[in-house]
Amino acid sequence: MANLPMEKLGQSLTDHERRKRLVYRASHRGMRELDVTFGAWVSHLDASGRLSEARVAQLELLLERSEPDLLALLCDHGLAQGADEQKLMRELKQFMRDSLGRSLRHSLDATCKKT
User: Fold this and answer.
1) CATH of residue 40
2) Over the stretch 20-52, which tens digit does the pLDDT of each residue have?
């Protein structure tokens, strides 16, 4: 996925624009399981007002990782880079247990077994 510029026409993005961009990027990775999992989680964080400027920056860094890296993190086959990323992944996995449907969790489990 091509990186979108953080600035537009020499102007910084507003907080709202950064959150909107983050929600889009989280749900348009290319791999269905990642799109649905990350997209639902980031949308939930945004809707619940839990996307501070610092958290947006952390999530932007996380989403810079490749799809295979993110899938490995979700499947517990990869190592998180630093304490912030570890915390984000713990929160994501808790969200998955609490909020994602059984069929999606089953699909992700099947994908993890293949890798």
Assistant:
1) 1.10.150
2) 999 999 999 989 889 999 999 999 999 999 999
